[in-house]
What does this fold into?
Amino acid sequence: MRNQKLLPDAPGVYLMKDKADNIIYVGKALSLKKRVSQYFQKHDHDTKTRALLKNISDLEYIVTPTEVDALILESNLIKEHRPRYNIDLKDDKQYPFIRITIKEDYPRIFITRKRLKDGARYFGPYTSARAMRETLRLITRVFKLPQCKKKFSLRSRPCLNYHMGLCSAPCSGSVNKTEYREAVDEAIQFLEGKNKDLIHKLETKMQDFVLKNDFEAAAIVRDQLSSIRAVSLRQQVTGGFEDWDVISIAISGEIASAQVLYIRDGSLVGRSEFVLNSCGAEDNEVMDAFLKQYYSDAPVPGEILLDTMPDDPTISEWLRSLGNVNINIPARGRKKELVEMANKNARSLLKITLLKDEKKEKSGFSALVELQDVLSLKNLPELIEGFDISNIGGTDAVGSMVVFKSGKPDRRQYRLFNVKTVSGIDDPAMMKEVISRRVAHIARGDDTPPDLMVVDGGSTQVEAAMSALSTFNTNIPVIGLAKKFEHIYIPGADTPFILPHTSPALRLLKHLRDESHRFAVSHHRRRRSSRLRASILDDIPGVGKKRKELLIKHFGSLDKIQAASVEDLEQVPGISHKMSREIFEKLQGSKSL
It folds into this structure.
């Protein structure tokens, strides 16, 4: 490992790596020199740190101006690399958000599962998709906002939603920009839970319409008020008019759960729940990690109520830099009751998670034992690698490798191989190349050999894999699983054998095979789509190398060029109206490819 004495006495982030150059831990420090030295000078480490130290092979660091900057960078690196020994939110990316594209002239509102740093407003995550859709339907009805995902293009006539009273139809010019933006602002107020301010604003607007004898407009606002008041009445479960996030953590061994209750304007407007890999850490360490990851994206309220105070004072400093927030552990009263409610929900989620994990582990372990028995394996197949090939007519050929640890996918170890040495339709030769490249890494000591390799296919693919293994004189068990009848092929056996459909081992093999197939096909489609779209752009008359570069520079990617309207294309220097129309028609015709 690099000389620790060279580390600077400055704030920053350190990245610990294993012998395969995988980042296994990310940490931040006020002094990189002092913090990293502590790992190797102390001997009373906890179980997690002892396991980490055994696997460290290299160390990198990034110096930052302040410790708060280091904290932000640490959070981003953990999200990007998901290191093995860092506490990690498991579920956050699975929950949907409501997205409002406020940077656009006519903002759109729709559901998304990806939260990007694109200037849009995101509300969520919602743990109940049903509750989220009900909220979206209410917003559509009350504020007449369209739910179109694509950017609005000018239409001669509005769609059916306009005639049903569900949309103000900005696409047809039925509402001006000022009126539309006002409706968007009101919808945002509603989603923020600021119903009191919104009701006051709408009451004033209704009175103005009455004074102007515009009774039709006043009736529309009256109906809006009625809907919002009904929602507010259902939400009144707490007193006061403040904005709080109430957070509680529950831990059991390597698993932790977090519960966040959202109190807005004195009302409980929602909650989110998360499952974390706690790595056996203490309560305050888990709270530190959760707050850093959660508030790197989520808006900061006026007050955060906790049951465990963060151990790292930098977190409080960082949160206060994001907004004027108080962080407290309440001792009595309604706030204390809310924290207890959050803790009760966190413990309930943890119990359900542990029961699910226990059931999965029992099922997974029995599958591994059965596999070892039916295949006469020397070792329990705790580490299995699955391989598949995807191509059309031999073009854009790719190979995939998926990894299952203890019967579960380990997606951080998935690998893709672009086939380089085989041309034409020859899947066995492609399989041989992919296995050869994989085994070459193992032979060099870069990776741990698996207990079992599974190829998608029959005896021909198994023979190709065995040929690759023999080149490196490597003795790794290999089997093939054919799709049609789920036959299992073993090297040297005259006939395949079949496991019962109820067999845990067969379910595991099918899951592995299907996952490797999905992974290969998705990458193949991306390669093919990219090639086809690139060639289509090249084939448009008048679009030479220079104009192609201008288009890509302006839009950033082929996907964005394909999504552009004629008017968008005209904004590119050197692209006339006629040419923009030709590009648009050509690319629209390619979308079916």
Q: What stands out?
A: The two ends are 50 Å apart (CA to CA). The chain has 18 helices and 19 strands.
